[in-house]
Request: fold
Amino acid sequence: MSTLSRREKSKCPISYSLDLFGDKWTLLVLRDVILHGKTRFAEFQSSDEKIASNILSDRLRRLGEQGFIAIEKDPSDARQKIYSVTKKGLSLTPVLLEIAAWGASHDGQTGELPHTVERSDSVCSSITNALR
Amino acid sequence: MSTLSRREKSKCPISYSLDLFGDKWTLLVLRDVILHGKTRFAEFQSSDEKIASNILSDRLRRLGEQGFIAIEKDPSDARQKIYSVTKKGLSLTPVLLEIAAWGASHDGQTGELPHTVERSDSVCSSITNALR
Reply:
């Protein structure tokens, strides 16, 4: 939806946010780049949810256009791209953590937050990179 | 996606949450029932985002099946239904508020949180009803 058409319809901040990231796959890609420090297309594709490559391409492109991630060519292979989270992208961390906290407290199988250590390390790495 | 099929794919709490409410329209309906205290189909339909009636019907039904909202017949008109938030639905308030906070801080037009007073009143009303 364009900014103009949205503006004609709603001035709600929740609506504004959801126009940008109110989509399961967008949020899962953000999870992977922010909390798991993924940087390569194949890494995103390897996530347990098995995102389809066309959907992944679309979401990465949109996230790049909206400034949530930076997209650069791989200096060692021009056909490959390197994705990294930006400061704007990192500002979504509290949203992701609230969603994670809700899931962990309502689903017995995820209650142990199995990726806690991995996430912790990756968040530090993502923050360090975004602030460079 | 069924619980079984999801379990085969991912144990991530974010993925679990997004399978339930990782959709723009679902979250907007939750906003309306939690933060604006809406209870009638026509009230949800009248929101600025102009949700299509078939999508609204679908999301209300799913939210009822998942226990986020209660759906009752209107005692004064059996053709009408009354929707209200449950305790489980209210547990999503922190997620909605994080999304609102992000939108308010990133969009100049929504920065003033124009519905603050209305939301505050409606949240109190929703909590009171859910705890009855």
About this structure: Residues 113-120 of chain B have pLDDT under 50 and may be disordered. Chain B touches chain A through 45 residues (CB under 8 Å). The beta strands of chain B are 69-74, 77-85.
